[in-house]
Amino acid sequence: MADALLNLAGALWVVHQPSPTFNSAWPRTFETLSHCITGDPMSGRANGAFVNPGTIHAISRARSHAGVAYYNPEIARRPNLRVVTEALVEKILLEKTEHGQVNATGVQFVGRDGRRRTVHAGAEVILAAGAIKTPHLLELSGIGTANLLQTHGIEALVDNPNVGENLQEHGFVPFSWEVAEGQTTGEALRNPEIAQAAMQAWQASGAGPLGLCPISSAFLTLPELRDGELQALLDRYLDNKEVSPNRAAQYRLLRRLLEDPEEPTGQYTLAPFQITPEKGPSPKGIFAMTEPECFVSIVAVVNRPFSRGSVHLASADATTLPTFDPQLLAHPLDVELQARHVHWLETLAATEPMASLLKPDGRRLHHPERVGDLETARRLTRDRIVAHYHVVGTTAMLPQEIGGVVDDKLRVYGCRKLRVVDAGVIPLIPRGNIQATVFAVAEKAADIIKESRQ
């Protein structure tokens, strides 16, 4: 990691870790294919393969996450902070003045004892319920599309049809290959004795597989394209004159990124265990590792999809889950981009040194034989795509006239004393996993809020 990107004073631990066999082979396989790393992967600009650092405490080998990094014992002792757990927020309390100004005055919630309570805001309400629940709460409170709110008997205090729209999500398509004899994968932990030994090793000294994050990644532009192929796809699928102005503005930017030869279009991730979306849709089925053999999986992701989904309330009852519609692969260009990255997964698996780690004539869970044509890759893309839990964009920080819900200070348009601080404010999905970006949004939000009170 470049020194300029290294911050030893951060709240979260990020560590480099030992590279098991598959992780060690990962970057060398890309190098064999002439895709060498072009820079520091943490810079946000590099192409190529690398072994992911992990958010793991360097000494205890426990996971380092926001819950322990930011809410530590010192923070918990603050007299002006109280954390209420097992509480369901029903709505933000809004008040409309005689001059038509809407103000947030507090929050209504139900505690674990079933009693309804209200908390009144001294300065403002900060909503950080995530890209799915934040727009849901805004709508329950009277901020959203007026017709939708009125249908559910909710007074529309702020009419903003952008709330809950612009939903973006990465979808990943996994291929899984049976590994060669003698190779160790995550399936080993199905053995109770091995699982117990791994837990004991971790509890004793942080050693063993439970103290690792055995994931590797790579960012790449579309591989193996024919001359003019990308341009033909863009001309075919992006010359739609009926796209809304806010969508058109995003598509222009996304097109420029696709046309940039230095900007990767996809992410590949190595996971040393089987992934079975055909046993979904729940994660319990997808990651259950029920096939008897041992496998390694490689997944392909389109970095910046064109598809846009939505999330909206389904009832005025806060206990009713909202309607969540990610619209994965709804845009035909996403299918074409994803299928080309998926097709190349077989090339990775057939290249040394990765190829020697796979069982000759071993099982493929994604298809009985090597995927050799683009049409099969398209079909597998549609059949096997899995949501990545990278939802963003539903309360976007944009000008309101092109899809915005919050301004550049995170303030909700049309409502005073109400801000949003979560992944929903990210207007365009970043390439790769969003975890670090969400932490950065929160850190920046803290600075913005503190500056506003000086």
UniProtKB/TrEMBL annotation:
PROSITE patterns named among the record's database cross-references: GMC_OXRED_2
UniProt keyword annotations, A-Z: FAD, Flavoprotein
Keyword Lipid metabolism recorded: no
Record-annotated Glucose-methanol-choline oxidoreductase N-terminal domain positions: 130-144
Binding residue positions for FAD: V89
PANTHER family tied to this protein: GLUCOSE-METHANOL-CHOLINE GMC OXIDOREDUCTASE, GLUCOSE-METHANOL-CHOLINE OXIDOREDUCTASE N-TERMINAL DOMAIN-CONTAINING PROTEIN-RELATED
Name of the protein: Alcohol oxidase
Species classification: Eukaryota, Fungi, Dikarya, Ascomycota, Pezizomycotina
